Amino acid sequence: MSDVKKVVLAYSGGLDTSVIVKWLQETYNCEVVTFTADIGQGEEVEPARAKAQALGVKEIYIEDLREEFVRDYVFPMFRANTIYEGEYLLGTSIARPLIAKRLIEIANETGADAISHGATGKGNDQVRFELGGYALKPGVKVIAPWREWDLTSREKLMAYCEEHNIPVDFSNKKKKSPYSMDANLLHISYEGGILEDPWAEAEEDMWRWSVSPEAAPEQPTYVELTFEKGDIVAIDGEALKAHEVLEKLNKLGGDNGIGRLDIVENRYVGMKSRGCYETPGGTIMLRAHRAIESLTLDREEAHLKDQLMPKYAEVIYNGYWWSPERRMLQAAIDETQKNVSGVVRMKLYKGNATVVGRKSEQSLFDESIATFEDDAGAYNQKDAEGFIKLNALRLRIAAGKGRQQS
Amino acid sequence: MSDVKKVVLAYSGGLDTSVIVKWLQETYNCEVVTFTADIGQGEEVEPARAKAQALGVKEIYIEDLREEFVRDYVFPMFRANTIYEGEYLLGTSIARPLIAKRLIEIANETGADAISHGATGKGNDQVRFELGGYALKPGVKVIAPWREWDLTSREKLMAYCEEHNIPVDFSNKKKKSPYSMDANLLHISYEGGILEDPWAEAEEDMWRWSVSPEAAPEQPTYVELTFEKGDIVAIDGEALKAHEVLEKLNKLGGDNGIGRLDIVENRYVGMKSRGCYETPGGTIMLRAHRAIESLTLDREEAHLKDQLMPKYAEVIYNGYWWSPERRMLQAAIDETQKNVSGVVRMKLYKGNATVVGRKSEQSLFDESIATFEDDAGAYNQKDAEGFIKLNALRLRIAAGKGRQQS
Amino acid sequence: MSDVKKVVLAYSGGLDTSVIVKWLQETYNCEVVTFTADIGQGEEVEPARAKAQALGVKEIYIEDLREEFVRDYVFPMFRANTIYEGEYLLGTSIARPLIAKRLIEIANETGADAISHGATGKGNDQVRFELGGYALKPGVKVIAPWREWDLTSREKLMAYCEEHNIPVDFSNKKKKSPYSMDANLLHISYEGGILEDPWAEAEEDMWRWSVSPEAAPEQPTYVELTFEKGDIVAIDGEALKAHEVLEKLNKLGGDNGIGRLDIVENRYVGMKSRGCYETPGGTIMLRAHRAIESLTLDREEAHLKDQLMPKYAEVIYNGYWWSPERRMLQAAIDETQKNVSGVVRMKLYKGNATVVGRKSEQSLFDESIATFEDDAGAYNQKDAEGFIKLNALRLRIAAGKGRQQS
Amino acid sequence: MSDVKKVVLAYSGGLDTSVIVKWLQETYNCEVVTFTADIGQGEEVEPARAKAQALGVKEIYIEDLREEFVRDYVFPMFRANTIYEGEYLLGTSIARPLIAKRLIEIANETGADAISHGATGKGNDQVRFELGGYALKPGVKVIAPWREWDLTSREKLMAYCEEHNIPVDFSNKKKKSPYSMDANLLHISYEGGILEDPWAEAEEDMWRWSVSPEAAPEQPTYVELTFEKGDIVAIDGEALKAHEVLEKLNKLGGDNGIGRLDIVENRYVGMKSRGCYETPGGTIMLRAHRAIESLTLDREEAHLKDQLMPKYAEVIYNGYWWSPERRMLQAAIDETQKNVSGVVRMKLYKGNATVVGRKSEQSLFDESIATFEDDAGAYNQKDAEGFIKLNALRLRIAAGKGRQQS
Quick one: which of A134, A140, C338, D238 could link to B392 by a disulfide (CB 3.0–4.6 Å)? Predict the structure, then answer.
């Protein structure tokens, strides 16, 4: 294990990754570079500096990646109306490629030969970090302490801290949650605890980002979202940067009880797990994006997008953002978004994010043809007969030859 | 036009199809057989008998098809979690194949050589009726009066009624709605009127089947749905027939403000149209079905179902229920449903249908493996390294050879 | 019919389209512009000028579109390894979008309000011409004489010629073939005659572009094809323009008995038809393209291309080249071709086009890993255990819970 | 390693698996059960009995699985026209599920707790054997000696033999080939040696099952293949069992130089490899199956099959025969084969397997409609106008609103 000289660690500043700093130094006898990013998890990142310094870290990276995260990862993903397994908005999955990319870039800058992360050996995140790492720097060494060490219980971790003088108050700042949580600008997730029984209802006090529908205001909130080429660029007429859009929608959604989700999902590593998620802004955004597409996309490209989406979602969920197949799918998706511009009006009320209007200068909705009233010849109803007759021809021939008909 | 001897008409008992009876008799000098079905549209069908008799119809079919409709059409469709264009639950589309089938069966029974319907030349329903008709009886003659006649305005229709002594009070029973509506056990739809402006919000008094979320009870309703092989067979432990399931879920959903939808959709005949829908029971059912599948389906079959679903939805929307491709897709879907059994617990509250628990004797959720706690060796975290390494191999080789990496 | 002032006709110079010139002048009392293109059909196009002049045409377009045809239509299509229904290389389909585009461009240049073509009402070509026309000029009037006139037999056509002084020697230049044929640089096709019986073997003297395998040389021909970004740019080291590539491959293939095909296909208008095709160059090109991709494409993008290909083929076959869905698919396909460069060596021998070698500077083939000999640690065989274990996990859990296993 | 009591080994009787017998006995101190199957590899299996006995094996299974192999694995796969990466007929892949199934059944019969095989850690076969094993007996222990032992060179293997008195003449029966080969009724494969250079042409004396096209007879052979529900049941009118069909077609194909393939493929474990294959009967069968489908399948089910095929091929190639997704796809495929019956006539000549005729009582080819001659009203050409107009509508609306047109 002596061949690692320097390792870049995705460092949250919390207890677990602090233990990892020390464990890496000891086990690999190597230098540790910490990397802490603000991707909207809702906690200060600056305090990680002092903690890292206290652990003897000399190269400390602390960065605000919120805009890049939303602009280059969240928004492109939402252009595809991406949902995993019919429900999940991929809040955790989409943050990993950016972290992986920065880990590698920092490794290249600092001359590190390894990267490390605090994800367990049972989950998807290890896969996402490591696939990203290997794709961007094929010779990198990846160290996944949770798959290597024997600190497999909280007791052992605490003993390790005591033994190595790692200040345990790290973990006492807030009451230890019974849940395993992860957060970024797109969502906060909960796993473990009573959620391990899929029949058990999540407790109300678990949720952190949204009020319950019951507790939401009695009056609906209306909001207008302006799209340009598939991305939201303004809310109620105010131009916003990508991450500001999501921050504002999270506030609006959370206040109105929108975006809670409770599912059982299939992990890439092979087992089912139960997770709860709050994605207030994303839930609004998905609905709104579909609405602006409903006006501006051609039918066949829309249907093709829908057919490709589950694959695209799987690619991202499984950790293949930095892959040729993701780029290929993205090229197809982005090709369709050139005209996905306009305004969607939504009503937010007690858990409901409802589209109530949509308009666009690129609209393909043609009132003169769609109308039930006189269309002044814009559409010739007699055309329908030939259309139906030829579409029926193969079915008629088959039936005429005695084929199964029902 | 003298070659039609007898035509079976899909007859609602309303003004339009009553005019069609007379118009067919006159124009084709043929006998008309009426067929009126209760598929849960919420109106009495028996009154259609007297009206048909008054128009001189001798062969009158009035049938209760509610159970067949839900059991053989709605339920099979829901096994696929079918949604058209990300939003629409296909409430109108799924009723047409059954009507088409009965029209043809009645034509065969009565020796009729033609069928007729009251759908316009601009919509999807003409396609669905006629494709079904042709697929089941390839030599049938289809008469679509709205594509043929010149009664293109309400004034002309009324004049025709007066001229032919068709009692116009037919239409006065209820105040004429400004919307074009269609209903069956799965949904009620609204088109036309102010909805032809996609920016205009639907008026509250348009909606007929559900209260608004605002008007729904302050207390949530919890309900347990029991699935067997993909279909709901009991609600809160009470065994129900297929149509009773949907009736009960419609009541529960409608009372709690669930299932309203407002979309712009792409018609098969080529234009976009705006429609509003209420699908209270279906909305609950879809969520619940996904939840029971989340426990009982294998990951890869679930993902494959999701990839096939948009095509399956398109097939049904476009009117190809009676086609080889629908049967082929159905065979794949039904193959997956053998173990989709268990119970889903849902919370209904002011527009929200939320899954809060799911359990199944066929569950593939394995607590011993999924747990974040000690799993006693059920899962070997070290396996993950090899898993990731080999999955990364192609990416590493590419990166090692200088390929684009991001 | 008086509303057409000027019509652009796709004019071959043959008897049928000459009749159409006259019929359009007479029936629509309009001016006719003729457009004749060399797309490699193997007949002189210049003689069409005199014929058109003799018919009173004043605006005559005669163009050599061979390079544009291959470069902008054939090559992009081959990047997807496009085959319709497992066999057909789409030789006719791919020529239509270019003709449609030029018809519309000429209509715009000459102020014409209509276009016309000589395709029948039973085939795919009418659809391809007209979809292209409508997509590029939505208000254009399309005149399809074969769907309108009553010249439904050869006798009636000849009578019309005599009546209108159309020189019938037009058709006598070569002995009238019993087959309906179409040719361009990519292929020549045969339909009709004895081919209407799918059990009947095509007669040897039908084939025009290739010798039979029996008659081909006893010695194989080896050829090296150089690809750049998915397209062939040189043969045996000689740089060639797109159409020169195809001309040369047609010669090589035809001489060696390569590229004959005899199939029953499904037309877009609903019936099956039997066609024979000679695609000598295309057959070589398809094989070679797959071979260079086998070295240079990532596995997952290759598989995704294969999954999209049948849809892409259908889009082109059905006439939707000028559609958003084709552009969307093309964007995905082209994204993958950046590194599809290198050389493929092929052996041509009596009907066989066999790949015998391939090399590329962008090759992802890694001898050090692929070898059965000692790989010096490039690949750790122990990784395979974890890879298999986690991939098997979902199957093991299911089997452990008593699910169907075989 | 003391926890294995009895292991069932896939035993070829060759040197490598003989070493494995001894190594298992020694390393795991366990009983070894050998299983040797005739799946048409072209070598006697009975001699394996004496060899196993000499190694001290008490439970010896030797079985003729040829019919089961072709009937239950090869034929179902061919119903889908299955090809991996555009070229490969999956000859190796399709044999593994049957071997895995018998290994597990024998383990259950003999009370063994483990299975073992002689596949390396670099290839696909280990994955296929082990996924099958785990899927059918989730608690089984799998021993893959090539991933465990240190006999990593031929020298070490020979030393091991000498040390353990394993008769080395096992390997001298035939001159050691420079290639790694695998054979069964569907194909024989070659890897390694000079093939590790993708630019090098395979040597003529490598090929074992077919003559070269050059050496094939100067006269073509015609053959008629009778299909029932997608499978070949007779050749030239003679009813044959499944494996007899393939044996006969292998003979016919091999004699006529048919079925050689030389490709670079993507392994599931992540690298590219170069392989050569001879699949004489399969190559004929694939072509013939497509031909009978071309007459008897509906267009849309045919296209859907083509879209699903690459996924189905991937599932089999990757080793997931015993999976829910394979069963799901098979259900769809088999649903389409009910009417795939009839006769295909083929011409075999110097490497070419050409379809020259096809007929079926279930044919959907309708001469009366397809004809270019007068069809007596079977098809109304005027229907095409409406068909095209409505299919063009979305394109026209888009163009009318100024959208990109080309």
Answer: A134
Of A366, A387, A403, which is closest to D397 when you measure between CB atoms?
A366
pLDDT at B153: 81
Q: Does A330 map to a domain?
A: no
Residue C173 pLDDT more than 50?
A: no
Measured between alpha carbons, how far is C302 from C80 in angstroms, rounded to an integer? 10
- Average model confidence (pLDDT) across chain D: 95
pLDDT recorded at residue A173: 47
| Per-residue pLDDT tens over the stretch B297-343 | 999 999 999 999 999 999 999 999 999 999 999 999 999 999 999 99
- Give the CA distances from residue B233 to residues B40, B238, B294, in Å, rounded to whole numbers and listed in that order: 19, 8, 18
What is the predicted pLDDT for the residue at D172?
A: 54
CA of A215 vs chain B CAs: smallest distance (Å): 11
Please report the beta strands in A112-230, taking only residues with DSSP state E, as ranges in sequence order. 114-116, 141-143, 180-183, 188-191, 221-228
CATH number, domain containing residue B99: 3.40.50.620
Question: What residues make up the domain containing C375?
Answer: 369-400
pLDDT digits (tens, 9 = 90+) for D151-176: 988 888 889 999 998 887 654 545 56
Residues annotated within a binding site of C for ATP: 10-18, 37, 118
The answer, for A400 touching chain C at a CB cutoff of 8 Å, is no
Asked whether the beta carbons of residue C294 and residue D180 sit closer than 8 angstroms, the reply is no
pTM, rounded to two decimals: 0.97
Q: List the one residue out of D330, D140, A86 whose CA is nearest residue C395.
A: D140
Q: How far is CA D124 from CA A23, B316, D190, in A?
A: 37, 40, 14
* Range scoring the smallest mean pLDDT among A285-299, C364-378, D376-390: C364-378
Question: CA-CA distance, B167 to B164, in Å (whole number)?
Answer: 9
State residue B369's pLDDT score.
87
Per-residue pLDDT tens digits for A157-207: 889 999 998 887 654 545 567 899 999 999 999 999 999 999 999 999 999
Q: What is the strand order of the sheet A272-278 is part of?
A: A180-183, A188-191, A272-278, A260-266
| Active site (annotated) includes residue D125 | yes
* Predicted local distance difference test score (pLDDT) of residue C373: 73
Rounded CA separation B85/A298 (Å): 12
Per CB-CB distance under 8 Å, the chain B contacts of C338 are: 404
Q: How many CB atoms lie within 10 A of CB A150?
A: 7
Contact A356, B201 (CB under 8 A): yes
Instruction: Say how many CB pairs under 8 Å bridge A and D.
Output: 76
- Quick check: is C315 in a domain? no
D320 touching B (Cβ < 8 Å): yes
Q: Report the percentage of chain A scoring pLDDT > 90.
A: 89
| A319 is a domain residue | no
Q: Let me know whether A16 and A146 are in one domain.
A: yes
Chain D contact present for C377, CB below 8 A = no
Residue B117: phi, psi to the nearest 5?
-150, 170
CB contact under 8 A, D397 and A338: no
Q: Report the share of chain D in percent with pLDDT over 70.
A: 97
Examine the domain organization and report whether C16 and C42 are in the same domain: yes
Tell me, yes or no, whether B208 lies in a domain: yes
Per DSSP bridges, beta strands D180-183 and D59-64 are unpaired
Shortest Cα–Cα distance, D53 to chain A (Å): 41
Return the pLDDT at B321: 98
Please tell me the distance from the alpha carbon of residue A127 to that of residue A230, in angstroms, as a whole number. 29
- What chains are in contact with D, requiring at least 3 Cβ pairs below 8 Å? A, B, C
Q: Is residue C103 over pLDDT 70?
A: yes
Domain count, chain C: 3
Mean pLDDT calculated for residue range C121-137: 97
Considering only CB atoms, which chain D residues are within 8 Å of C354?
260, 262, 351
Q: Which residues 6+ apart lie within 8 Å of B93 measured at CB?
A: B84, B124, B128, B316, B317, B319
C-alpha distances (whole Å) from D294 to each of C124, D68, D259, D343 are 17, 28, 22, 12
